[in-house]
Amino acid sequence: MSASQDFDIEEPLTSSSRPLTNATITVRVIKSFPFRNVKNLILSNYDLKTKTPKDLFDEVTKRIQSEASFRPFRTITYDTFKVYTHAHGSKTVNLVINFDHDDDWTLDIENPNKKLFEYGIENETEISFYKLSDYVAYKANPIEKW
Q1: According to its UniProt record, which protein family does this protein belong to (predicted)?
Q2: pLDDT of 21-37, one tens digit each?
Q3: What is the chain's alpha carbon radius of gyration, rounded to the nearest angstrom?
């Protein structure tokens, strides 16, 4: 990888084969932790170099409100993004949320200066989107109800 490009075409991994300005990320919209109500939203050609977590929040919220397939997910007031898994990284055993890395993998929606790539987000990263109070309650008592 040369200093002038942020992607690798010689020995590509899915995380480094596309430039940060043309990434594909998956947003895992979580309606209910105990019932495992999760729906994926795929964002293609997403610019991680210029977009902030607030930009991501606005776009995902708009898509939830406008796409018919997300109608059951509109009753939740989503307020938090957290990386679920990085491409080629280890996955959590919990199918709904990653309980690790609460401090360093949670995105700051209020920071207008920090870009998505500065959180370590790259092509094929999966990000959870949820209501923080629901997550805190589930983490304290992670019982699944189905």
Answers
A1: Belongs to the UPF0538 family.
A2: 889 999 999 999 999 99
A3: 16
pLDDT value, residue 87: 75
Read off φ and ψ for residue 108, nearest 5 degrees. -90, 100
- Hey, how many other C-beta atoms are within 10 angstroms of the C-beta on 53? 23
Residue 65 tokens, joined: 């409100």
Go through the domains of the chain in sequence order and give each one's CATH number: 20-137 (3.10.20.90)
For residues 94 and 12, the model is more confident at 94
> Does residue 124 come out as left (phi exceeding 0), alpha (psi in the -120 to 50 range) or beta?
left
Q: Strands 37-46 and 80-85, how do they pair?
A: unpaired
Phi and psi dihedrals of 16, rounded to 5?
Answer: -120, 5
Measured CA to CA, the distance from residue 88 to residue 80 in angstroms comes to 23
pLDDT at 42 over 60: yes
Q: How many other CB atoms are there within 10 angstroms of residue 91's CB atom?
A: 11
**pTM for the full model?**
0.84
Quick check: 91 pLDDT over 70? no
